[in-house]
Structure to design on (839 residues):
């Protein structure tokens, strides 16, 4: 899986880098302080949150303005040097790993919320603002930015747009792409364009905003984002129910939807996740249960209460037990946090976590989770599954020790088979983390050769020199 | 050559959840000064790609405050504090040990001199022959010299606590500054000097001691006071008044107390009884004192502190309470706060203020 990545082109721009004028030029653009080039300085930018992938940047640049980015990209395009945009480096698909080297453009210093406008119900932010910073600034004005990826305390808005990040409220509120109104982007040529704007309705031109959302830094560097906000709901309630297995929990999810509800939150964890999370957060969870379903909704209090009752009933009908409805905001937050911290908490099982992000249409959820267990048994791997049950997005996580070659082979084989399963159900290899370098080999299996070829043609239009995040989508 | 324990490094899965909690990352927004980046550097060191004298490696081990704010937010349970101790042992050894650290390390081991200075500053003493099962006050090296009034208050209000100045340093300074083995030995020896439960008025010392000699042997002062209140042995009858109004009180958590010992609720409960407690959003953030940090890196220390000052000034406080002498000194000397009306007090002093007005009322 690790990219071999040294070819003739690689050597040519390597030569450019050995020629010190590259670093000097970059320093002239952003200031010497914000260009890192010695091997130890760039070492910390080799990885993101994805295991097994690394690539050494030739330089790291921390720009502050769109103009600086434009100058860097123009220069890189001329010199044929890869440019990889990076936020907090919390990518789970090796989306920000510079697998072919080049310039890592860290956008974390562009961290200003430029505007939150209650009259227009929108916000304008720089790419380095974290999702949580935007969310809490919006809440102060009675507004809600709905997408809330598990890593929201660190994930940046630039990264969220680049992957169309999802989160815990996807079923009712949708994902990042449903909220992006406009973007400012530096193309691979160094040109700056503004797509969309401040309007919900705007059909002038192709919908480039939507195309760039989820483009994983391969079409342009996002330098400013305008997102829509919604009114913050009066109340939200959350509760949990336990089940014998994820299969029963999945049936409960289908039952809830069949009741005619579209709740804000429907998340589940299997037993391995319950134990790991409880170990970290001491939430008094029932560690003997096979699965936990987290359900919740927001809106007017009496309506939310009614929805909670209906969901409770659906859970009981499908074998749910030990139901707890959080009575205060603290407990409610704790229950949501249990789901958010699932992935890192699982690292208690083994040093390396291979995380999937597959999605299946909801009716196949129960069958999918059963088959995942069969795959885990077949390859004798520890697989813990959690996910966004409401929207069919699953995170089977294989925990293993990467220093054991046999364990690694089995983990990768299981990883591969789970992708095939998802595709066979008409699902996706990635719901919200992005394809990145980690899942690119499976992209063709899902979308077909013709579409991959089209992606390449689109990529060429935005980035004719192919410098933006090479080795990812469409390159 | 010495490596950093791989079993401490391997739990980190690079998720980055620590970034938002790290004060130095928040200053620079540069991965090199984040806990995750620093762990990457330690891994590079273990792999042999950088050596112990590497400029960045040394600089980052010193730039880190050691506040351990990254620990409670780490779902993978990485023990960053322990890693930092090993890291500084690697970078601050032999001739690479900064001169000021060398001096401080020697100073705190000179028990007779500290004792003499403490006596000049009239540190309280009592009970030469303590009964079995007593609580012992840990006097603290810095505290004895800078804030001797704390021991006098404790002697007056809690006469059952044994105060004996024949005790050494707890070794926290050594452990946090490149000499963890010596720091461990010093903690054990202090544990022997004080053969009971040790009451500490310094959050940093308490956290170090409890990690070295056992949590059950150490009780921090606010834990101790709350225990007395709940047992009915201490009553706070009325809050502190300032010009006829109930005092507005803010808190500066002690980082190691909060992040290492999980003690943060107790001082809040006490302060709520002493006045109107304002739980500032930045209470939990490091004030930049960070042990020797304020001495070693005054510029960075001031930058870390300045992030908090706006909120503190806007809160219109009467008192800002600390739980650790280092924080006390840092905040007392903050230029903006010196100009304002907020008084920086150790929790012992504020408690005394409440108890003494109470006694005054009684005597009338």
């Amino acid at each position: 899986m690790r990219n071999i990545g040294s070819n003739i082109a690689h050597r040519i721009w390597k030569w450019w880098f050995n020629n010190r004028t590259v670093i000097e030029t970059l320093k002239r653009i952003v200031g010497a302080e914000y260009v890192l080039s010695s091997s130890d300085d760039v070492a910390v930018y080799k990885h993101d949150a994805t295991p097994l992938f690394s690539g050494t940047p030739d330089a790291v640049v921390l720009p502050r303005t769109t103009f600086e980015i434009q100058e860097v990209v123009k220069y890189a395009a001329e010199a044929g040097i890869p440019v990889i945009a990076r936020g907090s480096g919390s990518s789970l698909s090796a989306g920000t790993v510079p697998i072919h080297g080049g310039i890592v453009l860290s956008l974390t210093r562009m961290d200003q919320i430029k505007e939150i406008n209650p009259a227009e119900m929108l916000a304008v932010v720089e790419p380095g603002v974290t999702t949580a910073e935007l969310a809490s600034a919006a809440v102060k004005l009675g507004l809600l930015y709905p997408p809330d990826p598990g890593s929201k305390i660190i994930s940046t808005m630039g990264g969220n747009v680049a992957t169309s990040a999802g989160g815990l409220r996807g079923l009712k509120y949708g994902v990042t792409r449903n909220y992006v109104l406009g973007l400012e982007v530096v193309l691979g040529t160094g040109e700056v364009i503004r797509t969309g704007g401040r309007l919900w309705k705007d059909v002038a031109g192709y919908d480039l905003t939507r195309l760039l959302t989820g483009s994983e830094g391969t079409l342009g560097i996002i330098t400013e984002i305008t997102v829509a906000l919604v009114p913050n709901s009066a109340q939200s309630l959350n509760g949990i129910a336990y089940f014998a297995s994820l299969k029963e929990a999945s049936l409960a999810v289908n039952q809830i939807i069949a009741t005619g509800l579209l709740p804000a939150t429907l998340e589940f964890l299997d037993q391995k996740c319950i134990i790991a999370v409880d170990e970290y957060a001491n939430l008094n969870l029932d560690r003997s249960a096979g699965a936990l379903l987290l359900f919740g909704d927001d809106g007017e209090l009496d309506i939310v209460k009614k929805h909670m009752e209906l969901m409770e009933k659906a859970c009981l009908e499908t074998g749910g037990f030990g139901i707890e409805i959080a009575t205060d905001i603290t407990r409610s937050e704790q229950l949501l946090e249990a789901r958010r911290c699932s992935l890192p908490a699982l690292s208690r099982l083994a040093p390396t976590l291979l995380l999937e992000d597959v999605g299946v249409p909801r009716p196949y959820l129960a069958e999918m989770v059963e088959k995942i267990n069969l795959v885990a048994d077949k390859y004798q791997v520890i697989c813990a599954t959690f996910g966004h049950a409401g929207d069919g997005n699953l995170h089977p996580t294989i925990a293993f020790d990467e220093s054991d070659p046999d364990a690694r082979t089995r983990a990768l084989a299981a990883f591969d088979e789970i992708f095939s399963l998802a595709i066979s159900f008409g699902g996706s290899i990635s719901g919200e983390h992005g394809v990145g370098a980690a899942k690119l080999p499976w992209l063709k299996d899902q979308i077909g050769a013709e579409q991959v070829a089209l992606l390449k043609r689109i990529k060429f239009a935005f980035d004719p020199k192919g410098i933006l995040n090479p080795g990812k989508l469409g390159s | 050559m010495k490596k950093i324990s791989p079993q401490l490094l391997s739990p980190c899965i690079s998720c980055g959840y620590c970034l938002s909690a790290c004060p130095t990352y928040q200053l620079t927004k540069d991965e090199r000064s984040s806990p995750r980046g620093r762990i990457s550097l330690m891994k590079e060191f273990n792999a042999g790609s950088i050596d112990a004298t590497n400029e960045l490696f040394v600089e980052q081990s010193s730039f880190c405050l050691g506040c351990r704010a990254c620990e409670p937010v780490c779902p993978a349970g990485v023990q960053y504090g322990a890693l930092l101790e090993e890291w500084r042992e690697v970078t601050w050894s032999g001739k690479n040990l900064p001169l000021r650290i060398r001096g401080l390390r020697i100073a705190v081991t000179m028990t007779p001199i500290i004792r003499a200075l403490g006596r000049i500053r009239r540190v309280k003493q009592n009970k030469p022959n303590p009964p079995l099962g007593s609580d012992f006050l840990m006097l603290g090296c810095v505290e004895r010299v800078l804030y001797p009034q704390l021991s006098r208050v404790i002697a007056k209000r809690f006469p059952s606590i044994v105060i004996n100045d024949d005790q050494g340093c707890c070794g926290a300074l050594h452990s946090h500054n490149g000499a963890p083995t010596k720091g461990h030995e010093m903690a054990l020896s202090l544990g022997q000097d004080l053969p009971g439960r040790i009451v500490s008025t310094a959050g940093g010392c308490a956290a170090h001691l409890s990690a070295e000699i056992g949590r059950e042997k150490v009780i921090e002062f606010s834990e101790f006071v709350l225990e007395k209140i709940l047992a009915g042995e201490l009553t706070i009858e009325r809050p502190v008044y300032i010009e006829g109004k109930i005092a507005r009180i803010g808190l500066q958590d002690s980082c190691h107390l909060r992040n290492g010992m999980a003690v943060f609720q107790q001082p809040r409960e006490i302060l709520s009884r002493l006045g109107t407690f304002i739980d500032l959003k930045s209470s939990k953030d490091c004030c930049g004192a960070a042990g020797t940090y304020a001495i070693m890196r005054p510029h960075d220390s001031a930058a870390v502190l300045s992030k908090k000052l706006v909120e503190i000034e806007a809160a219109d406080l009467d008192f800002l309470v600390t739980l650790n002498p280092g924080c006390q000194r840092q905040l007392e000397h903050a230029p903006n706060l010196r100009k304002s009306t907020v008084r920086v007090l150790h929790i012992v002093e504020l408690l005394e203020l409440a108890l003494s007005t109470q006694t005054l009322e009684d005597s009338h």
